[in-house]
Amino acid sequence: MTPPANDIRARALARRVIQRLSGPAESIAGIQDIICEELSGLDLPDAAADAAKVRGAARDLLALIENIDDTGVTAAERQRLRHDLRTPINAIIGYSELITEDFEDDLPEALLADIRTVIGECALLLAQIDRVLGESADVAELAGSALDGLVAAALEQTLSGDPRLEPRDAGQILVIDDTPENLVLMQRQLGRQGHQVAVATSAAQGLEIIATTQVEVILVDVLMPEMNGIELLARLKAHPQWRYIPVIVVSGLRDMRAVSRCIAAGAEDYLQRPVDPVLLHARVGSCLEKHRWHQRELRYLAEIEYERDRADALLHSVLPGGVIARLRAGEKVIADRFESSTIVFADIVGFTPWTARLDPSEVLSRLTEIFLAFDDLAAKHGVEKIKTIGDAYMAACGVPDAVEDHADRAMAFARAMIDEIGRKTGDAMAIRVGVHSGPVIAGLIGRSRFVYDVWGETVNIASRLEGAGVPSRIHLSEATRQMLRTQSTDFERRTSTLRGVGEITTYIA
Fold this sequence. Notes:
This protein is α/β, with parallel strands linked by helices. It folds into three domains: 5-154, Four Helix Bundle (Hemerythrin (Met), subunit A) (Up-down Bundle); 162-296, Rossmann fold (3-Layer(aba) Sandwich); 321-508, Alpha-Beta Plaits, CATH 3.30.70. It is 55% helix and 17% strand. The protein has 16 helices and 13 strands. The strands form two sheets. Strands 6, 7, 8, 9, 10, 11, 12 and 13 form an eight-stranded mixed sheet that branches. The chain has a five-stranded parallel sheet with strand order 2-1-3-4-5, with helices on both faces. The longest helix is centred in the middle third of the chain and has 42 residues, at 277-318.
């Protein structure tokens, strides 16, 4: 039994959307196989073991994507699917980052580049998951871009149309004329050339056909009741989906004003009756070619848009928006000094022994859940996430966009992180937070793979404050306390000796 045409299109469209996920996943799995082969020739068993875990997670990811039902996904299934897909992706990212951090000095640069490529593809895939399986998306209906819709519509037409071979230049033609004799003549003349011809006896009926049927060229008379051909032209050219359908006016009206008005309204040509059959076929063929070239242009533009979206998703996953704008403006070297900013370091207390008791997938899932929550809080408080280092989280305020209240924002962000991990884990986990304010240098490192980072004594002191801090409390410096616009009397003053810094006055909040 042949499925209905609309079901064919829906399933084809869903499969196109699923391919958006399978493409990056296949790339990840393929590159990871190469990485594992390269590592097998090196005397690095720990790195090879981590790479094997990445390969296993990549295969799990492919299996999950392959099993997505192309007949539709409910809202509840979307939520579960987003969670299930993120689990192996997070494992891939986590173990890949561990390999680069632990064995950077031991691995060839080409192998490190492959590992970074895997991490980058994961970032693209996460962006596609959000786009394809977002809260309001329906896999059975989501197009994602004009290209997907065109591909699905073409398949629908192929499967539901006449299976016999059609002439190469045949097209879908609509003739609109209120004179039956003219309709019959046009249908005969165009049909002999292999075109599929639909007819309408009024402009209103023609609009109904255009709305429900694929039409490549329209032939219309000027003299019609209720809505004449010029008024119909105006309606067609004002419609975003119909404006590019070529229209040929065919009329017995021999008035140059009518001709010029039709051409000005967007008609491709004005043919006077009686129409020479050779001229008619030549004009219809030219319009068909023009329409099909426009469809090709739409596909090319859709492909460019898709690739641009991929690039944008990757850039925004690793760089601040302001830095991206400067790169697009042509800046080659981005490095800035910020005389006043606040750095936040947070570290999960006892994370290493805690991980030894749990399955790796559960550890990665829990850590991902916490850090994603921290990312949301950073965006809410106007704080820029810089990076994660194992179970540590580093952020900055006043970088790369200078703000006057950076110390207040950073403190509010730190308190929110402590509250958030308490809500998510209860007494199972806690974090230490170190906060320090002062000058920093920030900029991009690398040429083909950018990393935005922050350096300076301010960063080092914030890190030391975190290490000497108290679980579930904020350890801040005198510099940060003085910059707070709202002074608090709840701070516990202490004298701290920090490695590489010496003895300084600090506060526990």
